[in-house]
Amino acid sequence: MAKTELSKSTFIRAVQCLKSIYLNKNRPFLRDHLEARQLNKFERGHEIGYLAWKLFPNGIDCSPKYPGAYAKAAAKTAELILGGAKILYEAVFEYDGIRVLPDIIVLENGEINMYEVKGSLNVSPTYILDAALQYYVLNGAGFTPSHTFILHVNKNYVYPGGEIRPEDFFVFDDITSEVIQQQEFIKFKIPEAKAAVNANKSPEVAIGPHCYLPYPCDFRGLCWKSVPEDSPLYLNSIDLQSRFRLASEGFTSISQIPLEGNDNKLLKMEIEARISGKPKYQSSELQKIFYSAKQQVYLKILFIENAIPRLAGTRPFEPLPIAWMALKEDGKFIEGKFSNPYGTFFEIAQQLQYFLDKQDLLIFWGKTTDYYLHQLDFDFPILNLENVYQSESLYLPFYLDEKTPENIATKLGILNGELAVMNDEEAIRAWSGESAKGKYNSEEIQNHLKKHLFLLRELYLYVTRLIEQDTN
Ligand code: SF4
After folding, report:
1. 3-state secondary structure of 242
2. Beta carbon of 17 within 6 Å of any ligand 1 atom
3. Cα(415)–Cα(407) distance, integer angstroms
4. 211, 233, 401: which to mutate for ligand 1, most atoms within 8 A of CB?
5. What fold does the segment set 285-471 form as a domain?
6. Which of 155, 216, 220, 448 sits between 20 and 30 A of 124, alpha carbons compared?
7. pTM higher than 0.90, yes or no?
8. Structural domain boundaries in the chain
9. Ligand 1 site, residue 233, Cβ cutoff 6 A
10. Under CATH, which number does the domain 6-198 receive?
11. pLDDT number for residue 12
């Protein structure tokens, strides 16, 4: 048996970048730290997979029980198929040095149908590509699929409560013709991917938009480390393609980009802020957003977005509050209580209303809270600080991969060791008992919420100081 050189995930990596597949195989220790958000995504995949099995009950789980058992599992798969097995989960197929494990295989009336399960609402080109690689391997191994399907989450599904019926939860997309059309591309790419994996040294690949597309590459820490901070590749106000276009036109520093005649107002503001090292802002515009209020109340809600809904009446990925807290200007905390583990937004609003004064300004960060407060016709002035920090009226003098309160505060020097916060994804992992620190720890979550509220207050005060400076 030829040695296994590629899998579905390494092949997809190779299509994105040949250097990435080389590094992944030969220098895995250089990979960036995996973010909690990505870990949450992987775990979501398992849960959905088990739910899909229920659509095809009484199958045989062929997945190898330990990493060295793939060859054995592949032999077992072939044996089971030849022996007349009808349904196989995670069956192992090997051909041409490639190993794949289709989620579900159904053998019926002399036909083989292959099902790939995805915990998302749509079918992406990458899903087609990875199903196409599986088709290539099964076909080569002598088990040509008659049909290939993607099972993904039905966006119109509303959970009625009780046990989930997978036939309502999933949508079947027949991608057989797309998968067959991709075979030429697959055959062309495999030798390239194998050559990169087996190379003695890393292939020369320049950084480019492919470092982010279709997935943010986990070797950016390595490949991007010599990009200077003032490079046009680190501009927030224009898209990735435009940043690389500027670099290819010879601009090595944002200070070289001509502002004269440039009608991109946001880009101009960003460049001016970055060069001067000071924020650029329009205080008259900021003033319009910052209502005068008796006092400010800061609100932080932690949401979980489950692909599989847990609360009757909700949809897949609908954000559900799992913990919340508010901070009044006098330093008093309002601690959220729920009558059920997932809570509802309505409950939060009701409890908050009890504490708020009509003139209090409720300050928070994020579209989700904003959306729910507007849905409820919440009867208090509200301010989404995210809108302020994303607006054309304020540009901070630094680049951020993501404009989160933690990232902004770190750059502004507000977030020091004392106030170090988890990000929300880490807090959710802590809530669900998956954090490195072990089981759900309410104290850990409460601390996260408290620190986040202090952070919100600092970010609010930062903008008020800018306005004051200008008006004095
Ligand atoms: S960071 Fe970019 S160039 Fe480096 S391995 Fe990843 S995709 Fe390739």
Report:
1. helix
2. yes
3. 9
4. 211
5. Nucleotidyltransferase; domain 5 (3.30.420)
6. 220
7. no
8. 6-198, 227-277, 285-471
9. no
10. 3.90.320
11. 95
